Structure formats: structure tokens, C-alpha cells
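Q: My labmate handed me this sequence with no annotations at all. I'd like to see what the chain might look like in three dimensions before we decide whether it's worth expressing. Could you predict it?
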Amino acid sequence: MSFSAFAGNPLFISPELMIADGLLDREDVVPPGFSDYYVEFERVIAWKATILARGWQKFQRTEERADFERFCVEAPWLASYSLFMALREKFGQAPWYEWPAEYRCADRQALLVASVDFAERIDYFSFEQYLFHRQWQRLREYARSKEIWIIGDLPIYVGADSVDVWANQQIFDLHARTRRPVNIAGVPPDYFSSTGQRWGNPLYRWGTRKGSVKKQLFNWWHDRLAAIFSLLDIIRIDHFRGFESFWSIPVGEETAEKGIWKKGPGFPFFQEMQHRLGPLPIIAEDLGIITPQVEELRDRLGFPGMKILQFAFDDNENNPYLPFNYENNCVVFTGTHDNDTTVGWYLDQEVSPAAKAAMKRAINKGGGDVQAVHRELIYLALSSVAVLSIIPMQDILGFGNDCRMNKPGTTSGNWLWRCAPWYLSKEISAWLHEETRFFNRLSRNEQRGEEEGVT
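A: Here is what I predict for the chain of 455 residues:
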């Protein structure tokens, strides 16, 4: 539900790097006592807004203006984004579909006038993106020097109150007068929710008969993928199955139980994106209600799917999440950001004793106690044939459900956990390195260093 599928979140901008670049003084960035264990979003937002405003004032007196203007020209999405943010500010942060008609409908003359009237604020929002993207590329270069690839999530949908919908209204399923969604995204009842998940995002007009809309929709997706691959090495497409078929919920429904499946763009869409962009390093999030048609699309594209160990233990030897049923082209997780932590899952009284017994059998401790369940599941993940194994930090540290990241279908209390630096002890580092080495998952250069005795 962010304001843009292209822009970076200003909260990630590093004050320390701003100091190094001469945009802030050290006394400007003394944090007002934030918690080391969870994010205090309201306080962080206010604090970051203050120091970014200071940085902007100082930036305007530097010699970097040419670099900034070059960035503005080279980021084709930026002008619409910065104007959108300036207009949201003008209208008291109201969503765009509640703006006066000339702005809601993106009247060209009204927007030209606004571009002049709000030029200073437009420049400020562009400055935020300039800082974010410049700092991010430093991070990415550093990661590459350490042989680290950055994987990012790409939600299939965008927020209704976003520049993406406002500036591209033709390609979304919107009411002609109110410009609000007619049907919205979600999924029917599944593992995570007995009433389904009513996400509320507007749907794409994949089925339109208008060639101009299809062309605009494909162009928007091309631009989106090109932008995300300029920041990341691999992307995980969240709700990949929506490209095969998507759940359409009438906007008046309070839950996701009543809806219909509609056809997505399928293989031709990815074929076109590959033609424009080349090979697409994508992980397909293929969880939930997955049909043979979704699996066929994933496999035809060669995208690895996901295997979640917490889903494996139902005493069914054909369960696709059991490691001995994996094929190589998949990515295994002990759990994702949407799951409880492994320790939290194991201690949860709502998880059936049968599931816990099946887990014990899978780790060859059918009759015994489990002292460190998180390390047992990490062992299963690393020892599998999956091409990639991803372990949440909470599972590496053995933390419980008070450190859970997200509960699907809820709108508060999520994404708060922070990893304090002192959690990352030498013992944990040595253990994780040895497990990674033993299961032959070190990088080639690190393997070479091990063979040569270099640590």
C-alpha cells in the first residue's frame, strides 16, 4: 500500500551517510532514544522528516545540483511521483480520489499550473528520492563486493491511493465517475484466514478488449520491472498465481469469501517482458490455492517456487513441502515473514500435536525431546536439494512469537521487530558458517578461501 511502486521509502535514508556527504552536522542527527528492539514508526517518521528537511536546505547550497538534475531526467517516474506527493500535502494527505475533480482526473492544464505553484515541494520530494537511490546503489555495490545478492519482494498489486493508479487510471478497474475500485484484490479462504484475505487493491484490466489499454498496461509493467531490477538482483513476485488467475472481489463485500477467479495475462506477458528486458531472475511465490495451471506457468518460465517447512508436517508423505519431495529448482524457507517464527510455531497450542509429531519424525527424533527446534528446521532446509535456502533472522536467533514480523489479514502491530546488533554473537556466526559450509552452500570464492586456509 505504498504511494509508489517505483520510489524508495525515505525512512531508509541513512543520516550517517548524509553527514559523510556534508548534508548534515553530527549534532543534527542525535536520535531521541529509539528502542533497539522494535520500530516506533510515528516517532521515526517525525524525526526523519526533520533531518531530511535540514539536509535539503544544505543541499541547495552545494555543487551537486547537476547530479540531482541528471537523476531527475533519468528517472521517468519521478516527476509524477513528486507532483503526487506535493498534491497530497496540499490536500491534507487525503487520497487522490477525494481531490477536486480537476486534480482527481489529472487534468493536464491543472497539473501544469500545480507543477509551477508547488515547484519547491516537488523538488524536495525528488531530493528524497535522489538521496535514497544514491545511498542504495552504494549499499548494492558493497553487497556485490561481498558476493551478496539482494532479493526483494515485488507485490503483484499496488495501493489504490498511489501515484501508480492516479497517473495510469486507464489500466486499473476503476469506476468512471468516482475513480475508486469497482472490484478489488484478495484471496479466498486459505491456510492464513478462514474468511480469506480482502486486500483492497485495485485490479488490473488484463481482460480489456482495448489494444491501447493493453499496450499501456504492458508498458507500465515493463517500466516497473526495469526499475526494480536496477535496485535488486533477484525479485520474489508476491502472489505469482495472480498472473495465471486472480480473485476478484466486489468492492462492497466485507470479506474475501465471495468473489470469482478471472484469467490473468499468463505466459504471453512474461514472454513479452523477457523480450524487452532479457532473462528475468524471479522467484515465484506460489503459496496458497495453487492449481496445475499455475504450476505449469511457473515451470514453463523456469522460475523457482517456494517451499515452507512449517507447512510440511501433516503426516502426508506426498506433502510437497517435505524436503524429500523437492526438486532442485525451488527455494526453501523455514518460514516467511507471514509465518510465526519456528519457535513460536512449535510452542503454539493451536498447532496440532500431530503436526509436531510429524516434524519430530522428519528430524529423526520421533520419540525424543527437541531442544532447539529452530536449528533442527534450519538443518532440514540447508540439507535439502533446494537451489537456495532462506532463513529468517528470528529463526537463526531462535526467537519466539513476540518477534513475529507479520500476521496476514491484520492491519496493526506488524513489521515492528528490530534486530539489535548484539544479538549477532560470534557463536551464532560460527555455527551458521559451519552449517553453510557443511551443506556446500558457501559462495565459490569463500569455498576457495576455505580450501586455501583463508578465513
